[in-house]
Amino acid sequence: MSTDSTWVTPVENSVEALEHGMRFVDGVELDLRLSADGELMLWHDELFAGKSPKKERSPELLQSQEIRKMGVDRFDDLLKSSEFTKLWQSSSKTVNIELKVPHPVAKISDHANHLATMISKIENSLDDLDLPKRSTMIYGFSPKISEAVKISQTKLPNTQLSPHLRSWGKGKMKRLIGSPNFISNTVSGLVRDRRRKGMPVVGMALHYLHGWERFVHPGAPVSLTGKGLNRLFSISQEMGLHVWPAPLKLEPIMLEAGITLISDFIDPTIYTLPNGEIRWPRPASQPLDQEWKNRLNNADELERPDLLVEAENSLPMWHEMSDNPRNKSIISDAQKWNWSGSPDSWTNDLQEGRPWGCARIIGHRGSGENH
Asked: What is the per-residue pLDDT across 166-177, written as a single tens digit (0 to 9) for each?
């Protein structure tokens, strides 16, 4: 893997990190929590670090001004960034918004209404942006997401992440407690459930598709290659598959399988993947044409940094492409990934963004998790 070590990752979920991720890849994922005074805050963890009582470290029990003093940005701060919002409005980029539920110490047990309040606040904040229909995805691990969507009556695309993990505790303990949920839900079951609920995307852990864990489910397993991939295509059709983590060594395989990667590798100095291939970080928002694919594939390692900059400056963004190349790109993807329907249905409303079933690279917490 070829890198230049001079780049420093911005603080996760900060405006700086989200601006960088929005520029460098196909979009970003961000985490939101609701402060005690009703502000949407860009923060992941259920508690702030420290040794004081948990009640004093719960974001949901703190005023937004207190939280901002800890270096945490508000969602509204992000929306003041014209660089970020212009890209969001363009139909080229995607923003995934993960809603977090409180730690039990906050004593907010009605998660459905809590999440519904967050969704309504998000919609109100986005009203004036006139965003394309396929530019925003709201999701969370809470099984109350569906109920919250009904309460809020939101029109924003949404889904539930799997497996269901509780909202507090260390990562290993969360995964251990989430194991029964993982075992009891197959990929086909998740797709059926999300489709029944009108959700255009399935958000799931990589273990469903790769590694020994996928064999714990009954029936023939799905995978990223071979017969298992064909089974995945027949199950998912045009449903989006948003998957985390996304190791660099699996990045080309996952993209080829039509999977959207929630990636922690948003370093602009990564020019070469572990398999030796050149890395192109915007497969959805600035797709390569055949000429550029050939040039990049034939470039030696020393040429790659300059050539990637040249490609970035030469190729049109998705929203700048004319109808014919956009249609050809989507039809090619749909045929490769075995979508149902017809070219007319696949290419409908492309001005609203690429279909959810297209592969993207999304920056996890903006520019990657880093704490």
From this structure: 665 665 655 555
Establish if 3 belongs to a structural domain: no
Quote the tokens at residue 267.
């370093």
Structure tokens at 10: 């911005």
Distance set, CA 113 to CA 55, 73, 117, 139, 146 (Å): 21, 24, 6, 15, 11
Instruction: Provide the pLDDT for residue 174.
Output: 54
267 found inside a domain: yes
**Domain encompassing residue 259:** 15-363
Question: What is the pTM (predicted TM-score) of this model?
Answer: 0.95
Q: In CATH, what number is assigned to the domain containing residue 140? A: 3.20.20.190
- For the cut 60, the answer to whether the pLDDT of residue 19 exceeds it is yes
Q: Is residue 2 part of a domain?
A: no
Query: Is the predicted pLDDT of residue 2 greater than 80, yes or no?
Result: no
pLDDT of 176: 52
Residue 135 domain flag: yes
Kindly report the number of other CB atoms within 10 A of residue 320's CB atom: 12
As for how many domains the chain has, the answer is: 1
* Cα torsion angle, 184, 96, 341, 153, sign: positive
What pLDDT does residue 80 have? 98
Token readout for 22 is 């929005």
The pLDDT value given to residue 70 = 96
